[in-house]
Fold this sequence. Notes:
- The structure holds three protein chains of three kinds.
- By secondary structure, chain A is mostly helical.
- Chain A is built from eleven helices and no strands.
- In chain A, about 50% of the residues are buried.
- Chain B is mainly α.
- Chain C has two domains: about 20-250, Rossmann fold (3-Layer(aba) Sandwich), CATH 3.40.50; about 255-380, CATH 2.40.50.140.
- Chain C contains eight helices and 20 strands.
- In chain C, a hairpin with a 2-residue loop joins strand 11 (about 260-270) and strand 12 (about 270-275).
- The chains are: A mainly alpha, B mainly alpha, C alpha+beta.
- Chains in contact: A-B, A-C, B-C.
- At the A-B interface, helix 1, helix 3, helix 4, helix 5 and helix 6 of A face helix 1, helix 3, helix 4, helix 5 and helix 8 of B.
- Chain A: It comes from Limimaricola cinnabarinus.
- Chain A: Belongs to the binding-protein-dependent transport system permease family. CysTW subfamily.
Amino acid sequence: MRQKFPVMTVIAVLGFVFLYAPILSLIVFSFNESRLVTVWSGFSLKWYAELFRDTQILEAAWLSLKIAVASASLALVIGTLAAFALVRFGRFRGRMALGVMVSAPLVMPEVIVGLSLLLLFVSMEGLIGWPGGRGLLTITIAHATFGAAFVAVVIQSRLVSMEMDLEEAALDLGARPLRVFFDVTLPVIAPALVSGWLLAFTLSLDDLVIASFVSGPGASTLPMVIFSKVRLGVSPDVNALATLIIVIVSLAVTVAALHITRSNRHAAR
Amino acid sequence: MSARGLAGLRRAWSGRALVVAVPLLWLGLFFALPFLVVAKISLSELAIAMPPYLPLAEWADGALSIVLNFGNYLFLLSDGLYVAAYLESLKIAAISTLFTLLIGYPMAYVIAMARPDRRNLLLMLVVLPFWTSFLLRVYAWIGFLKSNGIINNALMALGLTDAPLQLIQTDIAVYIGITYTYLPFMILPLYANLSRLDRSHLEAAADLGARPLTTFLTVTLPQSAGGIVAGCMLVFIPAVGEFVIPALLGGPDTLMIGRVLWDEFFSNRDWPVASAVAVVMLLVLIGPILLLRRAQAREES
Amino acid sequence: MTELSTATTPAVPPWADPEAQPFLRLDGVSKSFGGFEAVRGVTLDIYRGELFCLLGGSGCGKSTLLRMLAGFETPSAGRVLIDGEDQAGRAPHDRPTNMMFQSYALFPHMSVEKNIAYGLKRDGLPRAEIAARVADILALVQMTPFARRKPDQLSGGQRQRVALARALVKRPKLLLLDEPLGALDRKLREETQFELKKIQAEVGITFVVVTHDQEEAMTLSSRIGVMNAGEIVQVGTPHEIYEQPHSRFVANFIGSVNCIEGRVTGREGGHLRIACPDLGAEVTVESGFEAGAGEKVALALRPEKIAMGRTARPGFENMVTGRVEEVAYMGNLTIFQLRTDGGARLRVTQSNTTRTDADVPRIGENVQLQWTGAAGFVLGA
């Protein structure tokens, strides 16, 4: 039985409009002739051209990409191990601590995470001389840390729904635990690994606050550059950049989602 | 034979230890330890140096002396600005959370009640914006809200107002920004809850004579309480410490604590006070975090 | 598997032969989770080539026991010996056992042949041998045409056969089957029971099957171990379990039974005389049950062993009169609920040997209920 309340449907439709209208306007006005991003005055690609001439943005984008790839990959390893331990190991020493540390970053205000990591890096620098300045390395570590928490959540929910007897069957057929992990667990949770990595990747690409804290002079990520531009007011080249990012991310997510639903449907049969 | 078995067990055990150790050490070092550092620095004194604070422990005359300085906390309490900022942050986060719930609940409900083949598409539509840049989504609202922005242009074109309304740089803009960016965090736990709702309960209520609205109020809503709490906390907690949204959409008088911390750190370079601000913020958030954990634990069981 | 396939049923079954060496020996095996004792002190011998069923309701500990054989759980106490070797400290991948999982646990990302070859590859067998053995086993379970399919492209019955093949292909000393037919629908289950038995006879591997389905246990097994609350309450052939249960639990768990309370009045040779006030009669029953006069016992009578008629017939030692209270027509048989003159409620079944029901007693009719001295058995109070 389906209960439909017209009010709810209306609010839901408006909710979707609310979600997408700003994004659509962002895209539309990136093709606007005029510098005003709110009044249409003709189609133009000039803001895209300007964007590709802006070396500051291009350099920042390249730095952000490098950080995102490295931190997402690190986060995938750490998060998957954490999720596997939490779901498959039953009780062990440190379980409670690991559980808290995996779930806390999800809601922790970014200013706190950023500040605390910076202070750690500064203190460590004073004590042991590492990490030796701030920039790519420290941002990557910071992003890998909160990315790992998100990866762990995604993988945990997949592992919980994955029947343990698949792994037991492999053990029973003579595979050692490590072998089981690579032969059975990883292939079965592969879609979750992909979405976990993508999530960590986009979170890293997106982060302004934490990166601002743990970055040093000379290392500006894309969000940091965008933020400094946007603070001065709207500018159409940011719209152009936003459009490119939205298109790329939407394509990647759609492809991944289609792939995952297909393989899920495959597995559900 | 049994020696081989034992060796296998030992190997399995050391593998297990490694699997646990890697994330435990990483998160311990880069997530838990930093909080201790923050706590420590919040107790030290500001200095004009790099790093800009004095060490807590000092060797003086062959003896270790530790001077704890609670001055930063006293300063927070005595200066009305900080107390006001904490209260303002809680107020803004609470109001935004309420808006998010009012929009998110119907959306989650409609998705949960939709035809199964449409559900995944609708869910993806909810999640998709979340994947695109948060900063740029906030930026998009500047174009919407500013005095010659899309909303004002539309209102004037319709003749609803003669002069542009002041939308940007107000608290309202901050409410909109938070509601907008955190909406998926509200919808997802609510959807997870509502989609588990046993349809036969609704049928039973209807069969026993309840009208749809009564059924909703007496059966659906109480059963989704866990999802409501989880969703609200997922929005409320990060919203309290939000920096980007008040910085871009709020006015100069929108005092949110995340922004205060940021300014304290980047403009005043007062690391000890910034740390104290962070510690107090964490203490304020412990209650909501515990509430969230309890709601999530209940939702999972 | 060929060396074992010539095994024939010996004149004396191994469990009746005091000289026979058990193939699987459980010695005081217990398992507790936290404070809960799932398995309590199970001691059990199973012989080579047996198809042994562990039968019990949900939560009786049968699956835990099976998982201890496979090595997924470690006994809290006791020993497990397979072919004379203590399995303590052995991980599942080091054991001479293989398991067929209730859910089949087929790897979804591997084809049928890859699934079956998986265990052989782990043993490091040469590629040619793996291919040959996979082909053989596929033929045995009649799945050769489906070798390249993925598990999700198979029907439930086909998946069941792949799971069986995957576990069998390693030629384990012991094959463990957890509710092997549980996921199949009724018709298919009946056919598969016989097929499973046939395959077991062909490969000659010792099977230990866990099931909650008493009918399945009866059809499949060489012997059954009935479990209740973590303990094995009786071990015996299907015939022994049905006809000579040691306890009310076993008698009730397998089939249905009428239990009538009474007191022993005396013994005449192999017969015990019992006074049953609820029947309003003294009955005689062939039993070796040791009980002195005056002791409280129960007479247990299977519903199909009571003859019912409007008039008494000769050749029965026991007779009471009863009145039909309920009649339930089941197709192949009819169940009657009766009350005797003494007040006992009895259940009687009759095979429907003809298509007419003219002769069937109606509700409210009085009938004679008769049974021989060998029809019932005696249970302790």
